[in-house]
Amino acid sequence: MPSLSDAFKSVPVQCKEPDISSMDEVPELYLWPQENQQALEENIGVNIPVIDLQHGVTSRASAGSVIELLRAAYEEFGVFQIVNHGVSQQLLERVENQGRRLFSLPLDQKIKARRSPDGVTGYGMARICTFFDRLMWSEGFTSIGSPLEHAEKLWPDDYQDFCETIDEYDHAMKDLASKLMSLILESLGLRQRDYSWGGDNCAALQMNHYPSCPRPAQTMGMAEHTDSTFLTVLYQGSVQGLQIKRSDGMWTVVPAIPNAFVVNAGDLLQVLSNGRYKSVVHRAVNSIKPRLSFAYLWGPPLTAVIEPAPQLVDSKHPLLYRALNWNEYLVVRAKHFDRALEFFRNVQ
Ligand SMILES: C=C1C[C@]23C[C@H]1CC[C@H]2[C@@]12CCC[C@@](C)(C(=O)O1)[C@H]2[C@@H]3C(=O)O
Ligand SMILES: O=C(O)CCC(=O)C(=O)O
Ligand SMILES: [Fe+2]
């Protein structure tokens, strides 16, 4: 059985880890073209629904059931936010504190837990850094299941709090993600029991740190991308920074709502829904304030067959993708990035 880490062995990447936290000036390599930076500030969060998982109400005028709200959100944006999701504020604060603790370590300490060139977990720049000619003003830490292996290197005598907190968060996210997937399947008119896949779902936790930036309008925190998941549950704390690209090409800010999660539609959901729900293109921008975010990237068991649901294929909706599994998708994606889905297009 391949593991999530194996998918990346074929395309090793070597990213640099400069000490941006201690820079008061932004080096040339971090300056991105200006047009990258214009989000519709006056449009902050307009229409991106906030769904109350317990009561089904929303920020939108037209309140409806959770399922209807979800469907409308994914058809229009590929993203929504959730509140009353059952994850305690206390756990979120503990996770934020551990994230802060990790990223405030000196660089030469963090480097000890550096992601290996052919690996997935550990400290470093987001893997997509190799597809852009500028550097991103951010650093990250990725774990799959227990972060013990890396935490021992970061804090040889004091890794327990970190591991316990991340384990707890991982479990909470696992439950939440599968609940969300049930709702998504229901919103597509699909039966839950057809999608048990016989095996454990795979997931990764990506912690991102965007240090305070002296020239936030000229830099990029995390360059535009989609997630290669079914869905991603993102906690962005209280500092705004996430933006989504709408179907008309306009960037829109996803407001930071205390204790809410952002739920992104990923590439595999686009396949499963036969293009009904498109994965959302998103990015994170910098600010004067330091920012942390925690993305739980959730997908199927690695070798489970994922294909467009037969119920969503008909004369008006031709079959768009051929069957694939997450492992082969990640391999193609590691090499071809935003063109990966094209390789799985169904050719008649
Ligand atoms: C299971 C996953 C999903 C990964 C790769 C692997 C672990 C880390 C994930 C991210 C997290 C940051 C954005 C992204 C684009 C990246 O560079 O690393 C993600 C990528 C993907 O969604 O493809
Ligand atoms: O920091 C953010 O808001 C976005 C992070 C993200 O897109 C990711 O980790 O995949
Ligand atoms: Fe993302």
Bound molecules: Gibberellin A9, 2-oxoglutaric acid, fe (ii) ion
What's the mean pLDDT score?
A: 92
CATH superfamily: B-lactam Antibiotic, Isopenicillin N Synthase, Chain
Beta-strand fraction estimate? 15-25%
Q: What count of domains describes the coordinates?
A: 1
How many strands in all?
12
Unreliable stretches (pLDDT < 50, length at least 5) are: none
- CATH topology label: Jelly Rolls
Shape: globular
Task: Tell me the distance between the termini.
Answer: 32 Å
Read across the widest sheet, the strand sequence of neighbours is 1-2-10-7-12-5-4-3
Identify the CATH class.
Mainly Beta
- Continuous helix count: 7
Keywords: Iron, Metal-binding, Oxidoreductase
Organism: Pinus tabuliformis (Chinese red pine)
Protein name: GA3ox2
GO molecular function: metal ion binding; oxidoreductase activity
Quick description:
With 348 residues, the protein is of the alpha+beta class. Helix content is 24%, strand content 17%.
Could you characterize what this model shows?
- The two termini are 32 Å apart.
- Helix 1 (66-76) links the parallel strand 1 and strand 2.
- The longest helix is centred in the middle third of the chain and has 28 residues, at 160-187.
- The protein has 348 residues and is an alpha+beta fold.
- The protein has one domain (46-344): B-lactam Antibiotic, Isopenicillin N Synthase, Chain (Jelly Rolls, Sandwich).
- It is built from 7 helices and 12 strands.
- The strands form 2 sheets. An 8-stranded mixed beta sheet has the order 1-2-10-7-12-5-4-3. Strands 6-11-8-9 form a 4-stranded antiparallel beta sheet, with no helix packed on it.
- The model has no long low-confidence stretch (mean pLDDT 92).
- It has helices spanning 66-76, 89-103, 107-110, 148-154, 160-187, 267-272, 326-336; strands at 50-52, 79-83, 122-124, 139-143, 202-210, 222-225, 231-235, 242-245, 251-253, 261-265, 281-284, 291-299.
- Fe (ii) ion binds next to loops.
- InterPro entries: DIOX_N (IPR026992), IPNS-like_FE2OG_OXY (IPR044861), IPNS-like_sf (IPR027443), Iron_ascorbate_oxido_reductase (IPR050231), Oxoglu/Fe-dep_dioxygenase_dom (IPR005123).
- This is GA3ox2.
- Belongs to the iron/ascorbate-dependent oxidoreductase family.
